[in-house]
Amino acid sequence: MSELKKIISCMDDYDPEAMRVDKAREFIRALIRPIQTNERIAVRGSLGRILGEDIVSNINVPSHDNSAMDGWALRGEDLGEGPTRLREVGVAYAGRGYSREVAKGEAVRIMTGAVMPPGTDTVVIQEVVQKDGEYIVVPPGQKVGQNKRLAGEDLSVGKAVLHAGRQIIPADLGLMASLGIAEVPVRRRLRVAFFSTGDELASVGSVLKEGEVYDSNRYTIYGMLARLGVEVIDMGVVRDDPASLEKAFREASENADAVITSGGVSVGEADFTRDLMIKLGEVLFWKIAMKPGRPMALGKIGEAYFFGLPGNPVSVMITFYAFVRGALLALAGRTEEIELPTLSVTCSTALKKNPGRTEFQRGVLARNGQGEWEVRVTGAQGSGVLRSMSEANCLIVLEHERGSVKPGDKVNIQLMEGLA
Ligand code: AMP
Ligand code: MG
What we know:
Low-confidence stretches: none
Largest sheet: 6 strands, mixed
Strand order of the largest sheet: 7-4-6-5-9-8
Shape: elongated
Mean pLDDT: 94
Oligomer: single chain
Bound molecules: adenosine monophosphate, magnesium ion
């Protein structure tokens, strides 16, 4: 049995004519086999890449107990019920410590980050200490061990500090640097080919003839892929004729891990497009219970994963965010936070919605007059109105079972800004 058929046989209520959004995701997740190949690159270049192996600490960070504050280091056992008078015997700086044993009744002036002098275990902040010549007076109420960072409290020897499958963020660069790591194993970059189909499409730079529209999908797809950090292969516009399409599909699937097309999957498209996809690979055609973005094709052409998105400019983006983004992240080897997180916020506008499909309306999340965050819908929500995506900073997700929304109701949103 083929891979696709096997997955289908394990799913209950598989219905390609009315595929639920959550079912479609489940299917796609089962289909994806993440890439395994690693390459070693300099730490700075690894930002946004997927970590290929666990990073295990080979040192303690910090390497010694040190002071968390500017003040005086002292022996906790010297602290009495009332004020404590101690003799200052020296200074410990960050990077230049005080190495002699501190005796009973003594204290050392200490700076933040300086190693705790031998014999001391407690730091009293400078603001509460009174100076009296070579003596200091510490007020009561101090706790033994306070204001001290422990060796290994940030990272300890032998512990995995970052796990394979993680997409590297700025903090991780610093974390690796703090371990003295200069090179890091990451998954090779994913290669994604894409093209648009349609005889009515004109490329930017040409003059529009009657009945033509500019191909905008290749630009939105490019933008969304670029944010994911994958290597893109833009194959342009391909005419709706069997020979050109076959050539494009073959070329794309030989050169890329994944192929994305837009247009050509809706009913009413020439049948040869579907026939061709079936001939070249193993492809399923779904009508998804969602709005916008109903038709979608999906499967494998050769070794490449194939996502045939609808042609409408908004549908393309919504289906990309709903299915392709997560699939590509999983394929690239990311194991954490693959789906866009959802937040629950108050909706200020009424939204009409029938149960039985998932809707992704374009929303603007902003502060209201009282300074509270709330979401409103952008204007016209037609699947051809790309402006609605431009004006939006989030998607309002109206789940499958949900009905209409009244102003003041809570809705779930997914932020688009700043997310890969
Ligand atoms: P299709 O899915 O091919 O039937 O296309 C649906 C609608 O989307 C039609 O109005 C097409 O003109 C439009 N469309 C398809 N592909 C693109 C594209 N690459 N850029 C802009 N509009 C497109
Ligand atoms: Mg078309």
